[in-house]
Design a protein that fits this description.
The complex is a heterotrimer of chains A (357), B (278) and C (251). Chain A is an alpha+beta fold and 357 residues long. Chain A has twelve helices and four strands, in the order αααααβαααβββαααα. In chain A, strands 1-2-3-4 form a four-stranded antiparallel beta sheet. Chain B is globular, with a radius of gyration of 19 Å. Classes of the chains: A alpha+beta (357), B alpha/beta (278), C alpha/beta (251).
């Protein structure tokens, strides 16, 4: 019986055993390896890395396996591991202009230097279930060879900025915020906001970004550019004093171009919403860019009327590990509080009934 | 044709439901009719509304043209054209004059359309007032009462702040002097083509689940002020390929030193102009 | 001359509380009528019911002899943007804070079909001057204005279409005493110059004395006394009116 959380040790052990059994499923079927997850559930792995805020495909695959495929639970596992790691410092800003491109599209120009590269996208697939995938052992069709890029591909935002059409971002001198070390405070600077959004829940950001398109927050966005691929991570160890490359990571960057902000005296300019996510997190990078732009309402002198523009609302509710904890904690025992509520409501009902008589 | 699916993907009962919505929409020009939009095998925002309208009106003898940004060769246009070729096995064309149904995203073809053609627009946000009033219940009331002062106030604010009306696309129109309507995100340049067009214009919004229509020869007026009349905007250049100085142009960046050329966004029009010149 | 607005037998209950209890009220063209009473006396509910924003459970309201609810919501809204005006206690409720002063005044004109930008602007400037706001500030947002200026802007926005009847809910409520006096003077002059009929709800007896031709005293949803302003204030008959008047004198 569920009664009495006291003496529940036996129950907990039994639940964990059951969980392990449920995770494994039918033992007549081969067990899923973390290598298979890493290779064949790549977007799930990417999402766990992004929300778990830790770039390690192997660990993310393990987390997914352990979490029975629940991405929030997996992100939670990864976060819990990450927090035990030593922090050496922070990397140099990623140079996404030097990215080794696997996908690069712009919705604002039909063609542009570097071209449009669709990459491995679902965008133009028809969502008809492909029953051929039920059969195993089929090799995928050959992918046509793509000519290697001879030079770095310029960013669309840079093309606009050179013409003075796009507001340039001021380079911050200060060390960027790190929300894993310091709590969120308000007003939150852009680096804190972007870090929060990059770690934030994809679904939450998607809903918020969507709301800005539907009139809750005044967005007029265009996808200036989305690019995906590998970028080098550089780090300056204090004992060396110069930057060294410590590895390459895959990221997705989205730069949203937003309709001008200007007046009779101030020349109109496009403003930028920015999204950067580990792995192939395109949907999230786009949502993040919409929300980043919405959160700039105050600095750009716009009215704050919508949820997506409210920094407190967005940043306090974006973290799915925090959110799932607080929502799910409601299933923990609340007998004591509820008992006082019971007494209270009985007393109030009694007085009303008495007055009516 | 794809086995296991009805002609044009949707089942016949669904098509009838959508055709009833279309009939209502035609009967009340510019008025948004809610309809039970279906899940489609393409994502919301890719044109599910337009696809459902097209699927409901297309027959085996039709010839379909699909354009996105004015062009037949854009990826999404190709994808939708392939979809219909696959599930309806109809003839497709890139020539405006040959098409009986033209599904479009963001443009109206340059060549004038005829009475025997239907133009189907893909619509992301059917509600023209949503930026000013996001609550659907309230905008419905505003339409019912023809209470459009707020929309004009927005245009007034643009002129006061910027010296001109700041809307360059999805420029709101009055249909038949009664309903305020979103023309979908076509450039304002295309708005005058909607006015008294001989072809039937149908608008489908899948995610927002609305259909609306402009019947043939219906007056469509872009909102403006007497002393700040509506102006169609295009890049002040001629097409590099065909030389047209009247068509709507796309800007193509040629290098990162600021080099750029301008070409017709309507690829079929551009081809025809080049052939005329040749 | 017949009444401009005439209401009879208005009753409305909120749960066990009677907000309006068989209230009858009438106002004639060009007349300023003050409805006074304490908080909870039903005076603000009365204003909402008279202006069609809330339906009474019982009773009728006639404007120009026609039942205001007979023609449906469209007709009522038309009335609200043409022959009627409503001035809220909090200017934020009556203004669009994200739209310039000129746009706020112009909206009512545009709702009534004005389509000439230059004319709309000229009228907006004229009205800004009439409510003593520098016309050079036409493109500023109301949030840059002081509370008194916001209230005057709301009045300009309401009066620009020359309504015949204006409802006002504690229009001086949130303002400093010195600002209140100025606003009351301005309202009195505008009412006289434009021949406006005004129904003003206030708990401020001094404001009522300054503006109103006639006073209605409300308590517990009932009209307990009504009459010409000087008569009611100088020779109150009902004990509650006597209390109201004396509390002002004492303060």
């Amino acid at each position: 019986m569920y009664v009495a959380v006291k003496g529940g040790e036996v129950a907990i052990d039994a639940a964990h055993a059951w969980l392990a059994e449920a995770r494994r499923g039918d033992t007549a079927l081969p067990e899923l390896s973390t290598a298979q997850i890493e290779q064949q559930m790549t977007l799930a792995v990417d999402r766990v890395m992004a929300e778990g805020s830790c770039y390690d495909r192997g660990l993310a695959a393990l987390a997914l396996k352990q979490a029975r495929g629940d991405s929030i639970e997996a992100a939670f596992l990864l976060r819990a591991y990450r927090t035990t790691l030593t922090r050496f410092g922070h990397a140099a800003p990623l140079d996404t202009a030097a990215m080794g491109i696997t996908r690069r599209i712009s919705a604002t120009y039909k063609d542009l230097p570097g071209g449009q590269v669709l990459g491995p996208t679902f965008d133009y697939t028809h969502r008809l279930l492909d029953f051929a995938l039920v059969a195993e052992g089929m090799a995928p069709a050959d992918v046509p060879e793509r000519a290697a890029d001879e030079a770095a591909i310029p960013r669309v935002s840079e093309l606009l900025a050179r013409e003075g059409l796009m507001q340039r971002e001021a380079a911050a001198e200060a060390e960027p915020s790190d929300l894993t070390r310091e709590p969120l405070t308000f007003p939150a600077d852009r680096s804190a906001r972007l870090q929060n959004l990059a770690r934030g829940d994809e679904g939450f950001l998607l809903g918020l970004g969507y709301s800005t398109q539907r009139g809750y927050g005044n967005a007029h966005p265009f996808v200036g550019e989305i690019r995906q691929g590998g970028v080098m991570v550089e780090f300056t160890p204090p004992e060396l004093g110069f930057a060294i490359e410590i590895g390459e990571i895959d990221v997705t960057e989205c730069q949203m171009v937003n309709q001008f902000h200007g007046s009779l005296t101030e020349p109109p300019q496009f403003t930028r919403g920015y999204g950067l996510v580990f792995g192939s997190g395109e949907r999230k990078s786009m949502a993040m860019a919409l929300v980043d732009r919405a959160l700039r309402a105050q600095e750009l002198g716009e009215d704050i009327t919508a949820p997506a523009q409210s920094a407190e609302f967005v940043l306090y509710h974006s973290d799915n590990v925090e959110a799932t904890g607080f929502v799910e904690h409601l299933k923990l025992p609340h007998y004591v509080d509820f008992q006082s509520e019971l007494e209270n409501i009985r007393a109030m009902r009694a007085s009303v009934t008495k007055a009516a008589e | 044709m794809e086995a296991g699916y009805n002609f044009a993907y949707l089942d016949e009962a669904t098509k009838r439901m959508i055709r009833r919505a279309i009939l209502k929409a035609v009967a009340i020009p510019g008025h948004q009719i809610p309809f039970g939009a279906r899940e489609m095998p393409l994502p919301y925002g890719w044109g599910t509304g337009g696809i459902q309208v097209t699927a409901s009106i297309i027959g085996p003898e039709d010839t379909l043209k699909v354009i996105d940004q004015g062009a037949d060769d854009t990826t999404n246009a190709i994808s939708i054209r392939r979809f219909f070729a696959r599930v309806a096995d109809v003839a497709t064309t890139e020539r405006t004059a040959e098409a009986t149904i033209i599904q479009t995203r963001h443009r109206i073809p340059e060549a004038p359309l005829r009475e025997d053609q239907i133009l189907v627009y893909q619509v992301p946000m059917p509600e023209p007032l949503f930026r000013l009033e996001p609550r659907i219940a309230e905008t419905k009331r505003m339409h019912a009462l023809a209470d459009y002062g707020l929309m004009h106030t927005k245009l007034y604010e643009d002129i006061a702040r910027l010296g001109r009306i700041g809307t360059a696309y999805n420029y709101p129109v009055m249909v038949n002097d009664r309903y305020l309507m979103s023309p979908s995100p076509i450039p304002a340049f295309d708005n005058p083509k909607m006015d008294r067009m001989p072809a039937l214009q149908l608008f489908g919004a899948g995610r927002e689940k609305r259909i609306y229509a402009v019947p043939p020869y219906t007056p469509v007026r872009s909102l403006d002020f007497e002393d700040h009349p509506f102006r169609a905007i295009r890049a002040p250049h001629a097409c590099t390929l065909c030389g047209s100085a009247a068509s709507y142009l796309d800007e193509v960046v040629t290098n990162d030193q600021g080099g750029r050329v301008y070409v017709c966004s309507d690829t079929d029009f551009c081809r025809a102009e080049q052939e005329k010149a040749a | 001359m017949s009444a401009l607005l005439k209401a009879e037998g208005l009753s409305l209950r909120f749960g066990r509380v009677s907000a309006l209890d068989d209230v009858a009220i009438a106002i004639w063209p060009g007349e300023v009528l003050a409805v006074v009473g304490e908080s909870g006396s039903g005076k603000s509910t009365l204003l909402r019911v008279l202006s069609g924003q809330q339906l009474p459970e019982v009773g009728t309201i006639r404007f120009d002899g026609a039942d205001i609810h007979a023609e449906g919501e469209a007709a009522l809204r038309r009335l609200l943007r043409t022959d009627w005006g409503f001035v809220h206690q909090n200017p934020r409720d009556g203004l669009r804070m994200a739209i310039s002063a000129g746009g706020n005044i112009g909206e009512r004109l545009m709702s009534n079909g004005a389509r000439h930008y230059g004319d709309i602007r000229a009228q907006a400037k004229d009205w800004l001057a009439r409510v003593e706001i520098d016309p050079a500030r036409i493109d500023e947002l109301p949030r840059n204005f002081s509370g008194g200026m916001q209230q005057r802007l709301q009045i300009a926005r309401t009066l620009v279409t020359r309504p015949r009847l204006v409802f006002m809910d504690e229009p001086t409520g949130g303002l400093d005493v010195s600002v209140q006096a100025k606003l009351l003077d301005m309202l009195r002059a505008l009412a006289r110059d434009l021949g406006l009929a005004i129904i003003i709800v206030t708990h401020d007896i001094a404001a009522a004395r300054l503006l109103a031709h006639r006073i209605v005293v409300m308590r517990h949803g009932q009209v307990v006394e009504e009459g010409l302003t000087d008569r009611v204030l100088d020779d109150p008959q009902h004990p509650y009116t006597q209390l109201l008047v004396s509390s002002v004198l004492a303060a």
